[in-house]
Description:
The protein is an alpha/beta fold. Helix content is 31%, strand content 14%. The longest helix is centred in the last third of the chain and has 18 residues, at 190-207. It is globular, with a radius of gyration of 17 Å.
Amino acid sequence: YAMNTGLVFSGGGFRGIAHIGVIKALDEYGFEITHIAGTSAGAIIGALYAGGLDWKQILEFIKKIDIFSFNNYAVGKPGFVDTEKFYDKFSEFFPADNFECLKIPLFITATNILDGSLKVFSEGELIRPILASAAFPGVFTPIKIADSYYVDGGALNNFPVDLLKSYTDQIIGVYVNPFLKIEIEQLKHSYNVLERAYKIRSANDSLSKFGDCNLVISPKDLINHSTFSINDVDAVFDLGYKAAIKALKKPDNLQMPKKDS
Length: 261
């Protein structure tokens, strides 16, 4: 009997690059991931992994798309960055643009900004749901899908462990939003306050799901990297990798892959 192993990637903006380091560690340990769920940055990394890219290719892609470049600024839309402008970059990897072309089943969350409901995407068109899931409110413009508009799934479900419980025997959760008390001096700009309020809400919801994971990988040092910082890609990748290796050395109640002898 083969174990179904689910992998859940939280949102976290730039800190989501740590997810790629975790993929490298899981590959080294020989894990066969059978289902993936992700939100926001986790939806992007999860989709690329589910599409068959290895950690090196994913890291290269993330470095190349440069999410905050000035070419992508929105004009006449509610947000700073025009999320639609990333469509072509993703269509290079997903020419078929549907969930059915993925090698691993994928579930991603987005928030319906008009009626306030959570939407889980797992079939049909792929690229718009990925972009919607990662559209951090107020920064990225909402994405139109069918008759509605969607933004970041993290607003309602930033750590979608619940989506995999009925499909898998064990779940590895990767949570990249370490939460600490801060000083008022750290809130220099309005977006820092917005990000902080958002984090408080999502931490409450996410921490309650740790118990549903067989292993949680949550790199503590990510606290020094903000959602929108874009330096040190390799450093953040490395934090994810090291945290994963450390966690996999003491895998509590996780069934590890059998090594070929």
